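Protocol step 4 of 6: structure prediction from sequence.
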Amino acid sequence: MLTGPKTYNPPAHVAKRNIRDIVEEDMEVRLFWVRAHAGTAGNERADELAGTSALKKKPAVDYERFPLLYAKKTIRTASLD
């Protein structure tokens, strides 16, 4: 999702922008894939924390930018309803 030039997922765009900003500061970014529910050490605790976090009140999501295609698709879908 982060490597494709045509990503239409707003959180992916935020992540790509953040990674680019970090790299421009001559810092290193490492991403690791962790299998879910596979007996990985600490995975159960991570699941517990994620569940707790999901129950907390969250601020409204506010994206600075998003792809034009995403806006068009959203408008098209809303107009068909």
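Step 5 (inspection) to follow. The mean pLDDT is 79.
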